[in-house]
Amino acid sequence: MSEDTVSLVLFSGTDDKLEAAAVLATGAAVMGRKVNVFLQYWALDSFRADRIHKDHGVSAEAGPEGAELVARQATQHWSETLAQAKELGGVGIHACALSMEMFGITKDDLDPLVDDVEGVAAFWAEADGPVVFI
Amino acid sequence: MSEDTVSLVLFSGTDDKLEAAAVLATGAAVMGRKVNVFLQYWALDSFRADRIHKDHGVSAEAGPEGAELVARQATQHWSETLAQAKELGGVGIHACALSMEMFGITKDDLDPLVDDVEGVAAFWAEADGPVVFI
Amino acid sequence: MSEDTVSLVLFSGTDDKLEAAAVLATGAAVMGRKVNVFLQYWALDSFRADRIHKDHGVSAEAGPEGAELVARQATQHWSETLAQAKELGGVGIHACALSMEMFGITKDDLDPLVDDVEGVAAFWAEADGPVVFI
Lengths: 134, 134, 134
Prior knowledge:
Chain A is an alpha/beta fold. In chain A, 43% of the residues lie in helices and 16% in strands. Chain A contains six helices and five strands; from the N terminus they run βαβαααβαβαβ. Chain A has helices at residues 15-30, 41-46, 63-73, 78-88, 97-103, 120-126; strands at 6-10, 35-39, 91-96, 116-118, 131-133. The first copy, chain A, has a five-stranded parallel beta sheet. Chains in contact: A-B, A-C, B-C.
């Protein structure tokens, strides 16, 4: 097994992709990998403190049937899955500075799950393993 | 050239993305890389035995013109491309246990291209190279 | 920090994803990484000489509000960001031969940012690090 850091770039803010991301992050953390999550664009928007528990929809391809399926099976919200992954240790969640600017928001607007704001160079400095764009 | 395993997480179930995935898997196998495919969400749905050869649409951005283009150029179905990649050896296709649960299906509901069902920890245990989320 | 090549497979041709890709490519180049960009499907379409500066829309999930946000914040076009990344050195942009065939176009139809046309085996031959599918 590799010891490299797993870097997850979250771009999409729909609940199906964020659920998939939370499951992958947790699995990697369980297997002892360091995990760096970098929040961009619509994913960052979904981590706002006042929106994180709202309905973020699903991918366009899922349709209403898929949306219902995702809603029905979710035994816990993806933010709770991520919170548990963080408790395992080695999981950091960073907001992309450029995307923060685009939305005109500050760290205080984000859910406390987010550790800090960082630039894309800082992201790459830690990306010594797979980089997964979701 | 790297000798690391190429891990492909297939999330999207549209024909354009599955075609792209099949081409990337084949190219990696041709170059002697081990390839692990992990089927989640809408991609898993497209690998059901009774649906794999149906029309799965294309990405929302493609539009009707794009859909026609994809249909017209496909000299062979992405499932055949994947079957050929498997014949090269070193290509495994695994269904995500959590997504199986979401759809309420069992291994028997899937096309024989799928080797088995595994959890996300088993996926990460083999992911010692790039992880490509499609 | 890893010295591996960063491989970016651009599949999506919307302006939000291409912007994200350009920022990630630039950040990797700034950090001294070699960057290989491989253009497929709708992303390749957006690199045509006569379309690169047109409006390519945004991801379906963004909605009209998101589209406006992306348009308003873009201080420079993603193609200029990529041009600057290329000036840093170590950034190559390659068109996927199969996708070229699908669109029925030749190298002359593409913006000069694109260096050449290559097959998927050539892509994997250089992919000794993370592979990011966008």
